[in-house]
Specification:
This protein has 352 residues and is α/β, with parallel strands linked by helices. The chain is built from eleven helices and 14 strands. Helix 5 runs parallel beside helix 6 and helix 6 packs antiparallel against helix 11.
C-alpha cells in the first residue's frame, strides 16, 4: 500500500517564500490556450494574486493573449518566462505532451510550478518531474482543481464524520460528445478520454479512498482511428472490500456525477462532478455557488481560483507540495491511468 507523504519544507526555502509573499502572488503563465485564459480570468476574483507575464509559442500569440487579459509582459519562449525575476510561481497550461519539458525548465530555474493535469503523459515522465522537483527543492503541484472546491471539501467533511459509515463503492462518470476537438482526439497531441477527462473520475475515487493505491485496475474500452481511447470504463479494486467504478467517454453525455456509497448511506456530487456546486447526502443538500459575471471557455472555470489560493498558502508556509494533492498521490493517479489506457490498447510515443 502506498500512502500520501506529508509535505516537506526546508528552512531556507520557507524564509525566501515568506518574504516574497507578503504582497500579491505574482504569476507567470506558460501557454496561451483556452485553459490558461480561464485560469487568468478566475484570478481576477482574487486581490492577492496578479498575473505579470505570459509566454507562448510565438510573440504574436503571447501579445494577443496579454492584450485581451491585461498581462503586461509577453514572451515568445518559455525560457524567457523562466528567467523573469518578477515571477513568484508559474502556471503551466500547455498541452500535456509538453508538461514535462516546460515544467522541468521552470523548476530548474527555481520557479514553483502549478502544472495542468495530467501532470505528465505516463508514469515514467511523472516520476522524472517529481524527482526533479524534490531534488531541486522547488514547489510542484498537479492542478487537480476539483480538490479545492467547497463542494469537495464538504464531501470529505461528511465522509470523515462517519455519516456514510464504512465506504464500500465509488461510482464516477465524465462523458461529453467532444470527439471533434483535435486536442482531445489526436494521439500526437496527447488525446484520449482517460488522460483528458478520465483523470477527474480517477482523482475522485482516489480522494475518497484516502490516496491509497488500488490492489488491481481492470479496464476496457474502444479506440478511434488515431489509436486513442474514446470510451473507457475501469474498475479499481481497493483493500478492505472497496471498489470504484469509473466511466469516461468522448462520444456521449454521461451523467457526470460522483457517487459515494457507504454502509449507512449514499452521497452524490451533482453534475458537473468535476466542478460541481452542490451535493446531496443523508444529512441534506449542500450548495456553494461559484462567482458569476465573468466569461469562461469551460463550465465553472471560476473555480480555478481555489487551487490558486492553495498554491499561495503552500508557498507562504514554505511547503514544497500540497497535502491535498501530494506528489505521491499524483504518481498513483499516473499509475492508474496508465494501467487503464494500456488495457484499452493506447500507447503514446512517450511510452517508448
Amino acid at each position: 500500500m502506498i500512502k500520501c507523504s506529508l509535505p516537506r519544507k526546508t528552512s531556507s526555502n520557507s524564509t525566501v517564500v515568506k518574504r516574497q509573499f507578503k504582497m500579491a502572488t505574482r504569476w507567470g503563465i506558460a501557454g496561451a490556450g483556452l485553459i490558461s485564459a480561464d485560469f487568468v480570468t478566475a484570478l481576477e476574483e482574487l486581490k492577492d494574486h496578479k498575473v505579470v507575464a505570459v509566454a507562448a509559442r510565438s510573440l504574436e500569440r503571447a501579445q494577443e493573449f496579454g492584450k485581451k487579459y491585461g498581462v503586461e509582459k509577453t514572451y515568445s519562449s518559455y525560457e524567457e518566462l523562466s528567467k523573469d525575476p518578477d515571477i513568484d510561481v508559474v502556471y503551466v497550461g500547455v498541452i500535456h505532451p509538453h508538461h514535462l519539458s516546460v515544467s522541468s525548465m521552470m523548476i530548474r530555474a527555481g520557479k514553483p510550478v502549478l502544472c495542468e493535469k495530467p501532470l505528465c503523459m505516463n508514469v515514467k515522465e511523472t516520476k522524472q518531474l517529481v524527482d526533479l522537483a524534490r531534488e531541486k527543492k522547488v514547489f510542484l503541484m498537479e492542478a487537480v482543481w476539483s480538490r479545492y472546491l467547497p463542494v469537495y471539501k464538504e464531501m470529505m467533511k461528511r465522509i470523515k464524520s462517519g455519516e456514510l459509515g464504512e465506504i464500500i463503492q465509488v461510482i464516477a462518470s465524465f462523458g461529453q460528445p467532444i470527439g471533434h476537438v483535435d486536442r482531445i482526439t489526436k494521439k500526437s497531441l496527447g488525446g484520449g478520454s482517460t488522460l483528458d477527462i478520465g483523470i477527474y473520475c480517477v482523482q475522485f475515487a482516489s480522494l475518497v479512498m484516502g490516496g491509497e493505491k488500488p490492489v488491481k485496475v481492470v479496464g476496457g474500452g474502444h479506440l478511434n482511428s488515431e489509436g486513442i481511447d474514446e470510451t473507457t470504463s475501469a474498475t479499481l479494486v481497493y483493500s478492505n472490500g472497496r471498489v470504484a467504478t469509473l466511466m469516461c467517454s468522448l462520444r456521449c453525455a454521461l451523467p457526470c456525477e460522483g457517487v459515494v456509497v457507504g454502509t449507512k448511506g449514499t452521497l452524490k456530487v451533482n453534475y458537473p462532478m468535476w466542478s460541481s456546486e452542490s451535493l446531496e447526502s443523508p444529512s441534506g443538500k449542500f450548495e456553494s455557488l461559484l462567482p458569476k459575471g465573468r466569461t469562461f471557455n469551460f463550465v465553472n472555470s471560476q473555480g480555478l481560483m481555489y487551487e490558486a489560493m492553495e498554491v499561495r498558502e503552500c508557498l507562504k508556509k514554505g511547503l514544497l507540495e500540497s497535502s491535498s494533492m501530494s506528489l505521491d498521490e499524483t504518481l498513483i493517479l499516473a499509475e492508474i491511468m496508465e494501467a487503464m489506457r494500456k488495457q484499452v490498447g493506447v500507447s503514446y510515443s512517450q511510452d517508448s
